[in-house]
């Protein structure tokens, strides 16, 4: 198997984070820049988005919730888990949208009309976020944690809108060895496989 991702993709980093403790799992990691629409990625995913998982049989799975579902054998078992995961992915989608609108704003031009709407949605989402269990290996809490990590990394001005209990939990989450292992800085070293990434855990 091969996972196509980028060092900064929160979705790809979530897949790697969730897969790390599953020692029966291993796959190659291919690094790409989806913003540049690389031909190899587009051949697998015409939307030029990461992550993408190519199975040994040639099946291509895109969209991180479905990759996680396939790799981890349907990890959401309760309504509470599903609700937390759904909230986490919705929050992350809004954060990524806001970041993209800001990243590609032309200099000295007004904000895109959707920018303020996305910002307001992010602020409401952060204020209403479920309580993060910073020590959990549950996929729902990993997804929520990675959404908050992305906010802290790319949109730190929004962090004051996160409640105090989640602020504390986020600090604990980012200190985890497995979360540090999938940081953009560590993934820039380009570990070639999940097993190699796992070896670097400290």
The number of helices is 10
In percent, how much strand structure appears in the residues? Answer: 5-15%
Count of DSSP E strands?
Answer: 4
Helix content: 40-55%
Mean pLDDT, rounded to whole units? 96
Query: Going across the major beta sheet, what is the strand order?
Result: 2-1-3-4
* Span between termini: 25 Å
Order of helices and strands: EHEHEEHHHHHHHH
Which regions have little confidence, pLDDT < 50, spanning 5+ residues?
Answer: none
Overall shape: globular
Backbone CA Rg = 17 Å
Q: What oligomeric assembly is this protein in? A: single chain
The class by helix and strand makeup works out as alpha+beta
What can you tell me about this protein's structure?
By secondary structure, the chain is of the alpha+beta class. It is built from ten helices and four strands; from the N terminus they run βαβαββαααααααα. Strands 2-1-3-4 form a four-stranded mixed beta sheet, with helices on one face. The model has no long low-confidence stretch (mean pLDDT 96).
Which key features would you list for this structure?
single chain, 202 residues, alpha+beta, four-stranded mixed β-sheet, 10 helices, 53% helix
Helix and strand topology:
Blueprint: E1 2-5, H1 10-19, E2 28-31, H2 39-44, E3 52-54, E4 60-62, H3 64-72, H4 79-103, H5 113-128, H6 139-154, H7 164-174, H8 177-181, H9 184-187, H10 194-199
Helix pairs in contact: 1-3, 1-6, 4-5, 4-6
């Amino acid at each position: 198997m091969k996972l196509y991702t980028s060092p900064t993709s929160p979705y790809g980093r979530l897949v790697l984070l969730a897969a790390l403790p599953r020692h029966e799992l291993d796959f190659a990691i291919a690094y790409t820049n989806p913003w540049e629409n690389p031909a190899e990625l587009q051949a697998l995913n015409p939307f030029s988005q990461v992550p993408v998982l190519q199975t040994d049989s040639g099946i291509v799975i895109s969209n991180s919730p479905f990759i996680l579902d396939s790799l981890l054998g349907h990890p959401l078992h309760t309504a509470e888990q599903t609700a937390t995961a759904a909230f986490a992915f919705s929050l992350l989608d809004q954060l990524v949208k806001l970041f993209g609108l800001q990243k590609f704003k032309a200099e000295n031009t007004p904000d895109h009309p959707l920018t303020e709407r996305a910002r307001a949605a992010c602020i409401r989402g952060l204020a209403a976020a479920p309580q993060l269990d910073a020590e959990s290996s549950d996929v729902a809490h990993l997804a929520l944690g990675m959404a908050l990590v992305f906010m802290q990394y790319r949109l730190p001005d929004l962090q004051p809108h996160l409640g105090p209990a989640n602020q504390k939990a986020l600090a604990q989450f980012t200190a985890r060895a497995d979360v540090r292992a999938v940081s953009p800085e560590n993934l820039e070293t380009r570990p070639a496989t999940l097993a190699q990434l796992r070896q670097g855990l400290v």
